[in-house]
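Discrete fold record:
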Amino acid sequence: MRKAFSMVTAIFVILILATISVLVLNTAGQITQNTTLQYRQEQAALLAKSYTEFAIMSLLNHDKVATGSCVENINSGNLLGGASYSARVRIYYIGNNLPCTAGNILNANSIAQNLAVGVPYSPDVIIDVFVSYTDPLNPAENITYYRRSLQKI
């Protein structure tokens, strides 16, 4: 009778330990997935900031008079060595006397009035950056990080 009781106790202890180990492994897997998602989102935020700075550099180096056009779009292919990141930048100009009038979104009369009273003219731009990446848990789904900034050029 005593040997059978020891066998039942051993099986019960093994079942409890197996249940606890399954819960620990499940929690560790969820923590790993959350850390990966957070890392990918932070990577997208850093890429958006980098592409905002790249757009500003592109605007400063672009000769609007010689080319007769403005920089309005910057697109990238696959970034970060196959990590499925891509960036798309859209630039909207605020101001007048710009060759590309499709991007102008402010009233040109208010800027002309400011110029008449001696306010120096410096065009402003709105830079919209979209960074897309694939969800590691669902590769068919794309996640897009969006950043908008107003810059004085």
Remarks:
- Residues 2-152 form one domain.
- The longest helix spans residues 2-61.
